[in-house]
TrEMBL record:
Protein's UniProt name: GTP binding protein 2b
Taxonomic path: Eukaryota, Metazoa, Chordata, Craniata, Vertebrata
A family per Pfam: GTP_EFTU
PROSITE patterns: G_TR_2
Family designation: Belongs to the TRAFAC class translation factor GTPase superfamily. Classic translation factor GTPase family. EF-Tu/EF-1A subfamily.
SUPFAM superfamilies in the cross-refs: EF-Tu/eEF-1alpha/eIF2-gamma C-terminal domain, P-loop containing nucleoside triphosphate hydrolases, Translation proteins
Top-level taxon of the source organism: Eukaryota
Tr-type G domain sequence ranges: 169-397
Amino acid sequence: MVDLTESGAVSPGHGRHGQSSGSCKKTSKKSRTRRSKRGRRRRSKKNRNNKTPPPYLPPEAEEGNIEYKLKLVNPTQYRFEHLATQLKWRLQEGRGEAVYQIGVEDNGLLVGLTESDMKASLKTLKRMAEKVGADITLLREREVDYDLDRNTRKIAEVLVRKVPDDQQFLDLRVAVLGNVDSGKSTLLGVLTQGELDNGRGRARLNLFRHLHEIQTGRTSSISFEILGFNSKGEVVNYSESRTAEEICESSSKMITFIDLAGHHKYLKTTIFGLTSYCPDFAMLVVSANTGIAGTTREHLGLAMALKVPIFIVVSKVDLCSRGTVERTVRQLERVLKQPGCNKVPMVVSNPDDAVTAAQQFAQSACITPIFTLSSVSGESLDLLKVFLNILPPLSNSKEQEELMQQLTEFQVDEIYSVPDVGTVVGGTLYSGVCREGERLVVGPTDEGRFLRLKVGSIQRNRSACRVLRAGQAATLALGNFDRSLLRKGMVMVSPKMNPTICCQFEAAIVLLFHAKTFRRGSQVTVHVGNVRQTATVECLHGKDELRTGERAVVRFRFIKHPEYLRLGAKLLFREGVTKARRPHTLSEK
Protein backbone atom coordinates (compact mmCIF):
# COMPACT_ATOMS: atom_id res chain seq x y z
CA MET A 1 0.00 0.00 0.00
CA VAL A 2 2.93 2.37 0.60
CA ASP A 3 4.20 1.89 -2.93
CA LEU A 4 0.77 2.35 -4.47
CA THR A 5 0.24 5.64 -2.59
CA GLU A 6 3.54 7.06 -3.81
CA SER A 7 2.73 6.15 -7.42
CA GLY A 8 -0.65 7.80 -7.17
CA ALA A 9 0.91 11.05 -5.84
CA VAL A 10 3.31 11.35 -8.75
CA SER A 11 0.97 10.72 -11.67
CA PRO A 12 -1.30 13.75 -11.11
CA GLY A 13 1.76 16.02 -10.65
CA HIS A 14 3.16 14.98 -14.03
CA GLY A 15 -0.09 16.06 -15.77
CA ARG A 16 -0.33 19.38 -13.92
CA HIS A 17 3.18 20.72 -14.62
CA GLY A 18 2.88 20.20 -18.45
CA GLN A 19 6.67 20.01 -18.95
CA SER A 20 8.20 18.91 -22.30
CA SER A 21 7.81 15.29 -22.99
CA GLY A 22 11.59 14.59 -23.15
CA SER A 23 12.36 16.31 -19.91
CA CYS A 24 9.33 14.83 -18.33
CA LYS A 25 10.32 11.24 -19.29
CA LYS A 26 13.88 11.66 -18.02
CA THR A 27 12.81 13.18 -14.73
CA SER A 28 10.10 10.60 -14.32
CA LYS A 29 12.55 7.75 -14.92
CA LYS A 30 15.00 9.07 -12.29
CA SER A 31 12.27 9.70 -9.79
CA ARG A 32 10.80 6.24 -10.47
CA THR A 33 14.24 4.72 -9.83
CA ARG A 34 14.59 6.62 -6.54
CA ARG A 35 11.05 5.73 -5.54
CA SER A 36 11.65 2.08 -6.44
CA LYS A 37 14.74 1.97 -4.19
CA ARG A 38 12.84 3.65 -1.36
CA GLY A 39 9.98 1.20 -1.85
CA ARG A 40 12.31 -1.79 -1.68
CA ARG A 41 13.90 -0.44 1.49
CA ARG A 42 10.51 0.14 3.07
CA ARG A 43 9.23 -3.32 2.04
CA SER A 44 12.35 -4.91 3.54
CA LYS A 45 11.92 -2.91 6.74
CA LYS A 46 8.24 -3.80 6.88
CA ASN A 47 8.97 -7.53 6.41
CA ARG A 48 11.53 -7.34 9.20
CA ASN A 49 9.03 -5.69 11.50
CA ASN A 50 6.18 -8.08 10.62
CA LYS A 51 8.09 -11.37 10.55
CA THR A 52 6.59 -14.36 12.34
CA PRO A 53 7.62 -14.34 16.01
CA PRO A 54 10.10 -17.10 16.88
CA PRO A 55 8.49 -20.26 18.31
CA TYR A 56 9.23 -21.27 21.89
CA LEU A 57 9.18 -24.39 24.01
CA PRO A 58 8.59 -24.17 27.77
CA PRO A 59 11.78 -23.05 29.58
CA GLU A 60 14.14 -25.87 30.50
CA ALA A 61 13.46 -27.40 33.92
CA GLU A 62 16.34 -28.13 36.27
CA GLU A 63 14.74 -31.43 37.26
CA GLY A 64 13.39 -34.06 34.91
CA ASN A 65 14.85 -35.91 31.94
CA ILE A 66 14.55 -33.21 29.24
CA GLU A 67 17.66 -31.22 28.30
CA TYR A 68 17.97 -28.27 25.87
CA LYS A 69 21.23 -27.75 23.97
CA LEU A 70 21.86 -24.99 21.45
CA LYS A 71 24.71 -26.94 19.86
CA LEU A 72 27.39 -29.49 20.74
CA VAL A 73 30.11 -28.70 18.22
CA ASN A 74 33.71 -29.75 19.01
CA PRO A 75 33.64 -29.37 22.81
CA THR A 76 36.90 -29.34 24.76
CA GLN A 77 37.76 -32.38 26.85
CA TYR A 78 36.76 -30.56 30.04
CA ARG A 79 33.48 -29.47 28.47
CA PHE A 80 32.84 -33.00 27.17
CA GLU A 81 33.28 -34.49 30.64
CA HIS A 82 30.84 -31.94 32.03
CA LEU A 83 28.31 -32.75 29.29
CA ALA A 84 28.61 -36.50 29.97
CA THR A 85 27.99 -35.92 33.69
CA GLN A 86 24.97 -33.81 32.82
CA LEU A 87 23.62 -36.59 30.58
CA LYS A 88 24.11 -39.11 33.38
CA TRP A 89 22.00 -36.89 35.67
CA ARG A 90 19.20 -36.61 33.09
CA LEU A 91 19.20 -40.38 32.59
CA GLN A 92 18.94 -40.87 36.33
CA GLU A 93 16.02 -38.43 36.49
CA GLY A 94 14.23 -40.33 33.70
CA ARG A 95 15.03 -43.75 35.21
CA GLY A 96 17.18 -44.69 32.22
CA GLU A 97 15.71 -42.37 29.57
CA ALA A 98 16.43 -38.76 28.56
CA VAL A 99 15.26 -36.50 25.74
CA TYR A 100 17.65 -33.95 24.20
CA GLN A 101 16.38 -30.99 22.20
CA ILE A 102 19.25 -29.87 19.93
CA GLY A 103 19.14 -26.33 18.54
CA VAL A 104 17.11 -24.94 21.46
CA GLU A 105 18.22 -22.32 23.99
CA ASP A 106 17.65 -22.79 27.73
CA ASN A 107 14.73 -20.34 27.65
CA GLY A 108 12.99 -22.54 25.04
CA LEU A 109 13.71 -20.43 21.94
CA LEU A 110 13.88 -22.63 18.82
CA VAL A 111 17.03 -21.22 17.17
CA GLY A 112 17.92 -24.19 14.96
CA LEU A 113 21.24 -25.31 13.50
CA THR A 114 22.70 -25.58 10.03
CA GLU A 115 23.13 -29.04 8.57
CA SER A 116 26.84 -29.20 9.38
CA ASP A 117 26.40 -28.02 12.98
CA MET A 118 23.54 -30.49 13.47
CA LYS A 119 25.67 -33.41 12.26
CA ALA A 120 28.51 -32.38 14.56
CA SER A 121 26.14 -31.99 17.52
CA LEU A 122 24.57 -35.42 17.00
CA LYS A 123 28.04 -36.96 16.71
CA THR A 124 29.03 -35.39 20.04
CA LEU A 125 25.80 -36.58 21.68
CA LYS A 126 26.49 -40.11 20.47
CA ARG A 127 29.98 -39.97 22.06
CA MET A 128 28.44 -38.73 25.31
CA ALA A 129 25.91 -41.58 25.26
CA GLU A 130 28.59 -44.20 24.64
CA LYS A 131 30.58 -42.87 27.59
CA VAL A 132 27.67 -43.39 30.01
CA GLY A 133 26.54 -46.70 28.48
CA ALA A 134 23.58 -45.54 26.42
CA ASP A 135 22.32 -45.34 22.84
CA ILE A 136 20.63 -42.50 20.97
CA THR A 137 17.63 -42.52 18.65
CA LEU A 138 16.64 -39.55 16.48
CA LEU A 139 12.93 -39.08 17.11
CA ARG A 140 12.29 -36.23 14.69
CA GLU A 141 13.73 -33.17 13.01
CA ARG A 142 11.81 -29.94 12.51
CA GLU A 143 12.57 -26.93 10.36
CA VAL A 144 12.67 -23.51 12.01
CA ASP A 145 11.91 -20.85 9.42
CA TYR A 146 10.70 -17.62 10.99
CA ASP A 147 13.02 -15.09 9.31
CA LEU A 148 12.99 -14.46 5.54
CA ASP A 149 16.54 -13.15 5.60
CA ARG A 150 18.06 -16.36 7.02
CA ASN A 151 18.54 -19.87 5.76
CA THR A 152 16.27 -22.61 7.01
CA ARG A 153 17.61 -24.28 10.13
CA LYS A 154 16.59 -27.43 11.98
CA ILE A 155 16.11 -28.61 15.53
CA ALA A 156 16.40 -32.28 16.48
CA GLU A 157 14.68 -34.29 19.20
CA VAL A 158 16.80 -37.21 20.37
CA LEU A 159 15.96 -40.06 22.76
CA VAL A 160 18.86 -41.29 24.89
CA ARG A 161 18.33 -44.67 26.57
CA LYS A 162 20.56 -46.76 28.80
CA VAL A 163 21.79 -50.13 27.54
CA PRO A 164 20.16 -52.88 29.67
CA ASP A 165 22.27 -53.67 32.72
CA ASP A 166 21.54 -56.36 35.33
CA GLN A 167 17.77 -56.29 34.65
CA GLN A 168 17.43 -52.68 35.72
CA PHE A 169 15.20 -51.84 32.77
CA LEU A 170 12.42 -49.27 32.89
CA ASP A 171 9.11 -51.04 33.47
CA LEU A 172 5.74 -49.40 32.75
CA ARG A 173 2.42 -51.11 33.49
CA VAL A 174 -0.51 -50.49 31.14
CA ALA A 175 -3.99 -51.74 32.05
CA VAL A 176 -6.03 -52.74 28.99
CA LEU A 177 -9.72 -51.82 29.29
CA GLY A 178 -12.70 -51.90 26.95
CA ASN A 179 -15.99 -53.59 26.18
CA VAL A 180 -16.23 -57.30 25.44
CA ASP A 181 -15.31 -58.18 21.82
CA SER A 182 -13.57 -54.84 21.24
CA GLY A 183 -10.29 -56.56 20.30
CA LYS A 184 -8.20 -56.08 23.46
CA SER A 185 -6.58 -59.52 23.63
CA THR A 186 -6.12 -59.65 19.85
CA LEU A 187 -4.29 -56.31 19.87
CA LEU A 188 -2.02 -57.48 22.69
CA GLY A 189 -1.34 -60.73 20.82
CA VAL A 190 -0.29 -58.80 17.72
CA LEU A 191 1.95 -56.43 19.70
CA THR A 192 3.67 -59.10 21.78
CA GLN A 193 3.84 -61.95 19.25
CA GLY A 194 4.85 -59.80 16.27
CA GLU A 195 2.34 -61.39 13.86
CA LEU A 196 -0.87 -59.89 12.50
CA ASP A 197 -4.22 -61.50 13.27
CA ASN A 198 -6.04 -63.58 10.66
CA GLY A 199 -9.38 -61.90 11.35
CA ARG A 200 -10.68 -64.82 13.42
CA GLY A 201 -8.78 -64.25 16.69
CA ARG A 202 -5.69 -66.38 16.14
CA ALA A 203 -3.39 -63.74 17.72
CA ARG A 204 -5.20 -63.88 21.09
CA LEU A 205 -4.97 -67.63 21.70
CA ASN A 206 -1.60 -67.43 23.46
CA LEU A 207 -2.99 -64.93 25.99
CA PHE A 208 -5.86 -67.02 27.34
CA ARG A 209 -5.34 -68.86 30.64
CA HIS A 210 -8.45 -71.10 30.75
CA LEU A 211 -10.22 -73.47 28.37
CA HIS A 212 -13.52 -71.60 28.56
CA GLU A 213 -11.70 -68.41 27.46
CA ILE A 214 -10.46 -70.17 24.33
CA GLN A 215 -13.92 -71.59 23.65
CA THR A 216 -15.78 -68.30 24.11
CA GLY A 217 -13.03 -65.93 23.01
CA ARG A 218 -13.65 -63.78 26.09
CA THR A 219 -11.16 -62.90 28.84
CA SER A 220 -12.38 -63.74 32.35
CA SER A 221 -9.12 -63.49 34.32
CA ILE A 222 -6.16 -61.16 34.58
CA SER A 223 -3.21 -61.99 32.35
CA PHE A 224 0.10 -60.26 31.75
CA GLU A 225 1.96 -59.78 28.47
CA ILE A 226 5.26 -57.99 27.88
CA LEU A 227 6.56 -55.83 25.04
CA GLY A 228 10.17 -54.68 25.11
CA PHE A 229 12.16 -51.89 23.47
CA ASN A 230 15.95 -51.98 23.26
CA SER A 231 18.31 -49.04 23.77
CA LYS A 232 17.90 -48.05 20.09
CA GLY A 233 14.11 -47.95 20.32
CA GLU A 234 13.56 -51.18 18.39
CA VAL A 235 10.73 -53.54 19.33
CA VAL A 236 11.69 -56.71 21.22
CA ASN A 237 8.93 -59.35 21.35
CA TYR A 238 8.39 -63.07 20.88
CA SER A 239 8.95 -62.84 17.12
CA GLU A 240 12.67 -62.24 17.79
CA SER A 241 13.00 -63.88 21.23
CA ARG A 242 11.81 -67.33 22.22
CA THR A 243 11.39 -66.71 25.94
CA ALA A 244 10.44 -63.88 28.29
CA GLU A 245 13.91 -64.07 29.80
CA GLU A 246 15.49 -63.26 26.41
CA ILE A 247 13.12 -60.30 26.01
CA CYS A 248 14.13 -58.97 29.43
CA GLU A 249 17.84 -59.39 28.69
CA SER A 250 17.57 -57.48 25.38
CA SER A 251 15.26 -54.68 26.54
CA SER A 252 16.01 -51.32 28.12
CA LYS A 253 12.32 -50.55 28.48
CA MET A 254 9.50 -52.97 29.20
CA ILE A 255 5.78 -52.43 28.75
CA THR A 256 3.76 -54.86 30.88
CA PHE A 257 0.18 -55.07 29.62
CA ILE A 258 -2.45 -56.08 32.19
CA ASP A 259 -5.21 -57.68 30.11
CA LEU A 260 -8.50 -57.16 31.98
CA ALA A 261 -11.96 -58.61 31.36
CA GLY A 262 -14.47 -56.66 29.30
CA HIS A 263 -17.69 -58.50 30.19
CA HIS A 264 -19.84 -56.91 32.88
CA LYS A 265 -20.08 -60.11 34.95
CA TYR A 266 -16.30 -59.99 35.46
CA LEU A 267 -16.37 -56.35 36.63
CA LYS A 268 -14.99 -57.20 40.09
CA THR A 269 -11.94 -58.81 38.41
CA THR A 270 -11.39 -55.69 36.31
CA ILE A 271 -11.65 -53.41 39.35
CA PHE A 272 -9.22 -55.65 41.27
CA GLY A 273 -6.72 -55.35 38.39
CA LEU A 274 -6.97 -51.55 38.42
CA THR A 275 -6.67 -51.12 42.18
CA SER A 276 -4.22 -53.89 43.00
CA TYR A 277 -1.63 -53.84 40.21
CA CYS A 278 -1.11 -50.05 40.30
CA PRO A 279 -1.01 -49.44 36.52
CA ASP A 280 0.89 -46.39 35.31
CA PHE A 281 -1.46 -45.91 32.34
CA ALA A 282 -4.69 -47.35 30.95
CA MET A 283 -5.41 -48.21 27.32
CA LEU A 284 -9.13 -48.13 26.48
CA VAL A 285 -9.88 -50.21 23.36
CA VAL A 286 -13.02 -49.26 21.42
CA SER A 287 -14.29 -51.17 18.39
CA ALA A 288 -14.73 -48.89 15.37
CA ASN A 289 -17.87 -50.66 14.16
CA THR A 290 -19.75 -50.61 17.49
CA GLY A 291 -18.46 -47.38 19.03
CA ILE A 292 -19.05 -46.63 22.72
CA ALA A 293 -21.03 -49.63 23.91
CA GLY A 294 -21.39 -51.99 26.88
CA THR A 295 -18.84 -51.40 29.62
CA THR A 296 -16.83 -48.77 27.70
CA ARG A 297 -18.18 -45.81 29.68
CA GLU A 298 -17.91 -47.78 32.91
CA HIS A 299 -14.25 -48.64 32.35
CA LEU A 300 -13.50 -45.03 31.39
CA GLY A 301 -15.14 -43.87 34.61
CA LEU A 302 -13.17 -46.37 36.70
CA ALA A 303 -9.85 -45.22 35.28
CA MET A 304 -10.75 -41.56 35.83
CA ALA A 305 -11.97 -42.23 39.38
CA LEU A 306 -8.63 -43.85 40.21
CA LYS A 307 -6.80 -41.03 38.37
CA VAL A 308 -5.03 -43.38 35.96
CA PRO A 309 -3.96 -41.51 32.77
CA ILE A 310 -5.82 -43.02 29.83
CA PHE A 311 -5.29 -43.20 26.06
CA ILE A 312 -7.72 -44.68 23.54
CA VAL A 313 -7.26 -47.17 20.70
CA VAL A 314 -10.02 -47.47 18.08
CA SER A 315 -9.61 -51.01 16.71
CA LYS A 316 -11.08 -52.98 13.79
CA VAL A 317 -10.88 -50.09 11.33
CA ASP A 318 -10.51 -52.69 8.56
CA LEU A 319 -14.10 -53.83 9.11
CA CYS A 320 -15.83 -50.52 8.37
CA SER A 321 -15.68 -47.47 6.16
CA ARG A 322 -13.68 -44.34 6.86
CA GLY A 323 -16.93 -42.52 7.63
CA THR A 324 -17.82 -45.02 10.35
CA VAL A 325 -14.35 -44.66 11.92
CA GLU A 326 -14.63 -40.88 11.92
CA ARG A 327 -18.09 -41.11 13.49
CA THR A 328 -16.71 -43.29 16.30
CA VAL A 329 -13.84 -40.83 16.86
CA ARG A 330 -16.28 -37.91 17.01
CA GLN A 331 -18.39 -39.84 19.51
CA LEU A 332 -15.32 -40.37 21.70
CA GLU A 333 -14.35 -36.70 21.43
CA ARG A 334 -17.83 -35.63 22.60
CA VAL A 335 -17.66 -37.93 25.63
CA LEU A 336 -14.13 -36.83 26.55
CA LYS A 337 -15.07 -33.14 26.38
CA GLN A 338 -18.10 -33.52 28.67
CA PRO A 339 -17.93 -31.75 32.06
CA GLY A 340 -17.45 -35.04 33.88
CA CYS A 341 -14.30 -35.85 31.88
CA ASN A 342 -12.80 -32.47 30.87
CA LYS A 343 -10.27 -34.17 28.59
CA VAL A 344 -8.56 -32.79 25.48
CA PRO A 345 -8.69 -35.48 22.75
CA MET A 346 -5.70 -35.67 20.41
CA VAL A 347 -6.06 -37.83 17.29
CA VAL A 348 -2.71 -39.37 16.27
CA SER A 349 -2.33 -39.66 12.50
CA ASN A 350 1.46 -39.62 11.88
CA PRO A 351 4.76 -40.35 13.70
CA ASP A 352 5.21 -36.69 14.63
CA ASP A 353 1.80 -36.73 16.34
CA ALA A 354 2.81 -39.90 18.21
CA VAL A 355 5.97 -38.27 19.60
CA THR A 356 4.08 -35.14 20.64
CA ALA A 357 1.27 -37.18 22.18
CA ALA A 358 3.66 -39.28 24.28
CA GLN A 359 5.37 -36.21 25.73
CA GLN A 360 2.23 -34.16 26.38
CA PHE A 361 0.33 -37.18 27.72
CA ALA A 362 2.83 -37.69 30.53
CA GLN A 363 3.03 -33.96 31.33
CA SER A 364 -0.70 -33.12 31.33
CA ALA A 365 -3.46 -35.30 32.77
CA CYS A 366 -6.08 -33.74 30.49
CA ILE A 367 -4.49 -34.86 27.18
CA THR A 368 -6.05 -38.06 25.77
CA PRO A 369 -4.38 -39.48 22.63
CA ILE A 370 -6.64 -41.43 20.22
CA PHE A 371 -5.23 -44.05 17.82
CA THR A 372 -7.14 -45.69 14.96
CA LEU A 373 -5.65 -49.02 13.88
CA SER A 374 -6.24 -52.56 12.70
CA SER A 375 -4.80 -55.78 14.12
CA VAL A 376 -5.50 -57.56 10.83
CA SER A 377 -4.06 -55.16 8.22
CA GLY A 378 -1.55 -53.55 10.61
CA GLU A 379 -2.76 -50.05 9.71
CA SER A 380 -1.28 -47.41 12.07
CA LEU A 381 0.07 -50.13 14.37
CA ASP A 382 3.54 -48.57 14.16
CA LEU A 383 2.19 -45.27 15.55
CA LEU A 384 1.13 -47.04 18.74
CA LYS A 385 4.58 -48.65 19.01
CA VAL A 386 6.27 -45.23 18.60
CA PHE A 387 4.01 -43.85 21.34
CA LEU A 388 4.79 -46.70 23.74
CA ASN A 389 8.51 -46.47 23.00
CA ILE A 390 8.70 -42.78 23.94
CA LEU A 391 6.12 -42.80 26.76
CA PRO A 392 8.04 -41.62 29.88
CA PRO A 393 7.45 -42.82 33.45
CA LEU A 394 5.17 -40.76 35.67
CA SER A 395 7.51 -40.85 38.67
CA ASN A 396 11.08 -39.62 38.63
CA SER A 397 14.13 -41.15 40.26
CA LYS A 398 13.80 -38.96 43.36
CA GLU A 399 10.32 -40.27 44.16
CA GLN A 400 11.45 -43.84 43.63
CA GLU A 401 14.48 -43.31 45.88
CA GLU A 402 12.20 -42.03 48.63
CA LEU A 403 10.03 -45.15 48.35
CA MET A 404 13.10 -47.38 48.40
CA GLN A 405 14.26 -45.79 51.65
CA GLN A 406 11.08 -46.92 53.41
CA LEU A 407 10.53 -50.33 55.01
CA THR A 408 9.60 -53.26 52.79
CA GLU A 409 5.91 -53.70 51.89
CA PHE A 410 4.84 -56.27 49.28
CA GLN A 411 1.19 -56.69 48.21
CA VAL A 412 0.02 -60.29 47.72
CA ASP A 413 -2.17 -60.41 44.58
CA GLU A 414 -1.77 -64.02 43.40
CA ILE A 415 -0.98 -67.34 45.13
CA TYR A 416 0.35 -70.44 43.35
CA SER A 417 1.68 -73.91 44.14
CA VAL A 418 4.58 -74.80 41.85
CA PRO A 419 6.00 -78.36 41.74
CA ASP A 420 9.54 -78.64 43.16
CA VAL A 421 9.36 -74.97 44.24
CA GLY A 422 6.51 -74.84 46.74
CA THR A 423 4.30 -71.87 47.52
CA VAL A 424 4.72 -68.81 45.26
CA VAL A 425 3.09 -65.39 45.67
CA GLY A 426 2.80 -62.70 43.01
CA GLY A 427 2.30 -58.99 43.52
CA THR A 428 3.85 -55.55 43.62
CA LEU A 429 6.50 -54.15 45.95
CA TYR A 430 4.96 -50.90 47.17
CA SER A 431 7.98 -49.67 49.14
CA GLY A 432 11.49 -50.64 50.23
CA VAL A 433 13.80 -53.25 48.71
CA CYS A 434 13.34 -57.03 48.79
CA ARG A 435 16.24 -59.49 48.39
CA GLU A 436 16.60 -63.23 48.21
CA GLY A 437 16.73 -64.75 51.69
CA GLU A 438 15.06 -61.78 53.36
CA ARG A 439 12.84 -62.48 56.38
CA LEU A 440 9.40 -60.82 56.41
CA VAL A 441 6.03 -61.20 58.11
CA VAL A 442 2.80 -61.84 56.20
CA GLY A 443 -0.77 -61.08 57.25
CA PRO A 444 -3.19 -60.30 58.60
CA THR A 445 -4.76 -63.71 59.18
CA ASP A 446 -8.43 -64.13 60.08
CA GLU A 447 -7.37 -63.71 63.72
CA GLY A 448 -5.41 -60.54 62.91
CA ARG A 449 -1.92 -62.07 63.33
CA PHE A 450 1.21 -61.82 61.17
CA LEU A 451 3.29 -64.92 60.39
CA ARG A 452 7.04 -65.09 59.83
CA LEU A 453 8.46 -66.37 56.54
CA LYS A 454 11.60 -66.31 54.39
CA VAL A 455 11.81 -65.20 50.76
CA GLY A 456 13.48 -67.80 48.54
CA SER A 457 14.01 -66.94 44.88
CA ILE A 458 12.56 -63.91 43.04
CA GLN A 459 11.34 -63.77 39.44
CA ARG A 460 10.51 -60.60 37.57
CA ASN A 461 8.81 -60.91 34.17
CA ARG A 462 9.44 -64.66 34.28
CA SER A 463 13.21 -64.33 34.67
CA ALA A 464 15.38 -64.64 37.80
CA CYS A 465 16.06 -61.47 39.78
CA ARG A 466 18.16 -61.00 42.92
CA VAL A 467 16.91 -57.60 44.08
CA LEU A 468 13.38 -56.18 43.84
CA ARG A 469 12.90 -52.42 44.11
CA ALA A 470 9.89 -50.28 45.00
CA GLY A 471 7.27 -50.11 42.25
CA GLN A 472 8.30 -53.38 40.59
CA ALA A 473 6.05 -56.42 40.20
CA ALA A 474 7.42 -59.93 40.77
CA THR A 475 6.76 -63.44 42.08
CA LEU A 476 8.41 -64.63 45.29
CA ALA A 477 9.05 -68.28 46.18
CA LEU A 478 8.25 -69.05 49.84
CA GLY A 479 9.37 -72.68 49.95
CA ASN A 480 7.33 -74.94 52.23
CA PHE A 481 5.16 -72.18 53.69
CA ASP A 482 1.58 -73.44 54.05
CA ARG A 483 -0.47 -72.04 51.16
CA SER A 484 -3.74 -72.39 53.09
CA LEU A 485 -2.56 -69.63 55.45
CA LEU A 486 -2.36 -67.13 52.59
CA ARG A 487 -5.05 -65.20 50.74
CA LYS A 488 -5.25 -62.36 48.26
CA GLY A 489 -5.20 -58.98 49.99
CA MET A 490 -2.46 -59.82 52.47
CA VAL A 491 0.82 -57.92 52.71
CA MET A 492 4.36 -59.04 53.37
CA VAL A 493 6.16 -56.39 55.40
CA SER A 494 9.35 -55.88 57.34
CA PRO A 495 9.16 -57.03 60.98
CA LYS A 496 10.46 -53.58 61.94
CA MET A 497 7.29 -51.97 60.61
CA ASN A 498 5.09 -53.31 63.45
CA PRO A 499 2.07 -53.31 61.08
CA THR A 500 -1.34 -52.27 62.40
CA ILE A 501 -4.66 -53.64 61.18
CA CYS A 502 -8.24 -52.41 61.36
CA CYS A 503 -11.80 -53.67 61.32
CA GLN A 504 -13.24 -50.17 60.85
CA PHE A 505 -11.99 -47.25 58.80
CA GLU A 506 -13.20 -43.84 57.68
CA ALA A 507 -12.95 -42.38 54.19
CA ALA A 508 -13.97 -39.13 52.52
CA ILE A 509 -15.90 -40.24 49.43
CA VAL A 510 -17.85 -38.87 46.49
CA LEU A 511 -20.75 -41.02 45.24
CA LEU A 512 -20.31 -41.41 41.49
CA PHE A 513 -23.56 -43.25 40.83
CA HIS A 514 -26.38 -44.84 42.81
CA ALA A 515 -29.87 -45.72 41.61
CA LYS A 516 -31.52 -44.69 44.90
CA THR A 517 -29.93 -43.38 48.11
CA PHE A 518 -26.87 -44.47 50.07
CA ARG A 519 -27.44 -44.66 53.82
CA ARG A 520 -26.37 -46.30 57.09
CA GLY A 521 -26.58 -50.10 57.00
CA SER A 522 -25.77 -50.42 53.29
CA GLN A 523 -23.42 -53.26 52.34
CA VAL A 524 -20.81 -52.61 49.66
CA THR A 525 -17.76 -54.35 48.22
CA VAL A 526 -14.70 -52.25 49.08
CA HIS A 527 -11.54 -52.18 46.93
CA VAL A 528 -8.47 -50.62 48.57
CA GLY A 529 -5.28 -51.58 46.76
CA ASN A 530 -5.21 -55.40 46.80
CA VAL A 531 -7.90 -55.57 49.52
CA ARG A 532 -11.35 -56.66 48.34
CA GLN A 533 -13.98 -57.35 51.00
CA THR A 534 -17.61 -56.66 51.83
CA ALA A 535 -18.13 -53.88 54.35
CA THR A 536 -21.09 -52.32 56.13
CA VAL A 537 -21.71 -48.59 56.33
CA GLU A 538 -21.66 -47.73 60.03
CA CYS A 539 -22.43 -44.01 59.74
CA LEU A 540 -22.34 -40.97 57.46
CA HIS A 541 -20.91 -37.99 59.31
CA GLY A 542 -23.25 -35.00 59.17
CA LYS A 543 -25.77 -36.66 56.82
CA ASP A 544 -28.54 -39.24 56.94
CA GLU A 545 -28.26 -40.33 53.32
CA LEU A 546 -26.19 -39.72 50.21
CA ARG A 547 -27.22 -39.30 46.57
CA THR A 548 -25.33 -39.35 43.28
CA GLY A 549 -22.66 -36.63 43.13
CA GLU A 550 -22.69 -35.85 46.87
CA ARG A 551 -19.70 -36.07 49.22
CA ALA A 552 -19.38 -37.25 52.81
CA VAL A 553 -17.07 -38.84 55.37
CA VAL A 554 -18.21 -42.42 55.86
CA ARG A 555 -17.27 -45.06 58.43
CA PHE A 556 -17.07 -48.65 57.11
CA ARG A 557 -16.77 -51.96 58.99
CA PHE A 558 -15.37 -55.12 57.38
CA ILE A 559 -17.77 -58.05 57.92
CA LYS A 560 -15.30 -60.97 57.68
CA HIS A 561 -11.81 -60.24 58.98
CA PRO A 562 -9.45 -57.29 59.64
CA GLU A 563 -7.28 -55.85 56.88
CA TYR A 564 -4.04 -53.90 56.56
CA LEU A 565 -4.72 -50.44 55.07
CA ARG A 566 -2.42 -47.52 54.30
CA LEU A 567 -3.43 -44.01 55.28
CA GLY A 568 -4.20 -41.94 52.19
CA ALA A 569 -4.85 -44.97 49.96
CA LYS A 570 -7.36 -44.73 47.10
CA LEU A 571 -10.65 -46.48 47.76
CA LEU A 572 -13.36 -47.63 45.38
CA PHE A 573 -16.55 -49.41 46.41
CA ARG A 574 -19.56 -50.79 44.59
CA GLU A 575 -23.04 -52.04 45.43
CA GLY A 576 -24.46 -53.71 42.33
CA VAL A 577 -24.15 -50.82 39.89
CA THR A 578 -22.85 -48.45 42.57
CA LYS A 579 -19.33 -47.01 42.20
CA ALA A 580 -17.56 -44.36 44.26
CA ARG A 581 -14.05 -43.26 45.06
CA ARG A 582 -12.07 -41.76 47.91
CA PRO A 583 -10.61 -38.39 46.83
CA HIS A 584 -8.95 -37.41 50.10
CA THR A 585 -7.46 -39.09 53.18
CA LEU A 586 -8.10 -42.41 54.85
CA SER A 587 -8.02 -42.83 58.62
CA GLU A 588 -7.98 -46.01 60.67
CA LYS A 589 -9.91 -46.91 63.80
